[in-house]
Write a structure and sequence with these properties.
With 261 residues, this protein is mainly alpha-helical. The protein has three domains: 142 residues, no CATH class; 39 residues, no CATH class; 53 residues, no CATH class. The chain has eleven helices and two strands. Helix 9 runs parallel beside helix 11 and helix 10 packs antiparallel against helix 11. The N and C termini lie far apart (60 Å).
C-alpha cells in the first residue's frame, strides 16, 4: 500500500479480483458487495472514461483492450490499479487522502493468494451465485478473522511446493513438487533445476539457453529461407522439403521450402 502513496487505514480490507472472460469475477464482485458489504471498484472504469473522452467505441472489446494497453504503456503497468485505489481512497478516506503493457491476467492469477475455480455449468444465475458464495465465504471469514483454523493438509503441501519452487535457478519456469502417500506422509520433495554439474543459465549466458538457441535457429532459418526462395530447381526442393518435414527440428525450414516452391 505504501507504493500507492495514499492513506489506506490498516483495518480496511482490499481484495483484488482477476480472471479471464467468463471466469465469474463479476459475480464474485457482486457477492462481495451485496452479501458481505464490500464496495467494488473496476480497473476498466478508467478505460471506459478514456474511451468516452477520445470518442472511441466503448462497446468494442478489442478497442477497450487496446486503450488499456496504451494507458499502461504511457503511465506504467500499475496505472489502472493506482486509479482504482485513488477512487477507493476518495470513497472511504477523508480529503487527506503482456505486448509489455498488456493485461497479464495469467501472471496476476499466478501471484494470487487465493484462486477460485469456476468451471462448472449451473442451470441458473442464482445457483451459480450460491455456489460461488459457498466457495468464497470461508476465505472471507478467515481473512477478516471471523474464524480461525489450521491450514488443511493440501494447503500445507502446496505451500511447501511453492517455497521449494523458489529454490529453482531456472529463468523461465520455477516448479516445486511434494510427493505424499495415502497417509499424507511426505515421501519426497523437489524442484526443477539445471543438470548436476552445470551452472545456471543466468550465470553462464546471462539469458535462458533455450531462448538463445531458438534465436540462432530462427536466424539460420531466415537465411536459408531467403536462399531457397531464389532457387529455380523446384522439384528437387519439394522432395527435400517433404523429407525434412519428418523432423520437427527442421519443420519451419521445410515449411518455408514448400511455400517457396
Amino acid at each position: 500500500m505504501a507504493k500507492a502513496s495514499m492513506a489506506i487505514k490498516p483495518d480496511q480490507l482490499i481484495i483484488g479480483l482477476t480472471g479471464s472472460f467468463g471466469s465469474g469475477t463479476s459475480y464474485i464482485k457482486s457477492i462481495l458487495k451485496e452479501r458481505f458489504g464490500f464496495e467494488g471498484f473496476s480497473l476498466s472504469r478508467e478505460v471506459f472514461d478514456y474511451a468516452e473522452k477520445q470518442g472511441r467505441d466503448r462497446r468494442n472489446r478489442a478497442e477497450l483492450q487496446a486503450i488499456g494497453n496504451e494507458l499502461r504503456k504511457s503511465n506504467g503497468n500499475d496505472y489502472l490499479a493506482r486509479k482504482a485505489l485513488e477512487r477507493a481512497a476518495e470513497t472511504f478516506i477523508e480529503s487527506d487522502e503482456d505486448d509489455p503493457a498488456g493485461q497479464h491476467v495469467q501472471a496476476c492469477v499466478d501471484q494470487a493468494d487465493i484462486v477460485i475455480s469456476n468451471d462448472v455449468f449451473y442451470r441458473s444465475i442464482e445457483e451459480r451465485e450460491n455456489a460461488l458464495e459457498k466457495k468464497l465465504s470461508p476465505y472471507i471469514r478467515l481473512i477478516t478473522g471471523e474464524i480461525k483454523r489450521r491450514p488443511y493438509q493440501k494447503e500445507m503441501f502446496m505451500s511447501l511446493a511453492s517455497n521449494l519452487a523458489r529454490r529453482s535457478s531456472c529463468m523461465k519456469r520455477k516448479g516445486g513438487a511434494v510427493i505424499v502417500d495415502s497417509n499424507s506422509d511426505v515421501i519426497s520433495v523437489g524442484f526443477n533445476e539445471v543438470p548436476l554439474g552445470r551452472l545456471p543459465c543466468e550465470d553462464v549466458y546471462g539469458d535462458c539457453y533455450r531462448d538463445i538457441k531458438k534465436k540462432k535457429m530462427l536466424a539460420a532459418i531466415n537465411v536459408k529461407r531467403r536462399s531457397i526462395r531464389s532457387c529455380s530447381v523446384v522439384r528437387f526442393w519439394i522432395f527435400v522439403a517433404r523429407f525434412m518435414q519428418k523432423s520437427m527440428r527442421y519443420y519451419a525450414w521445410a515449411h518455408a521450402i514448400c511455400r517457396a516452391s
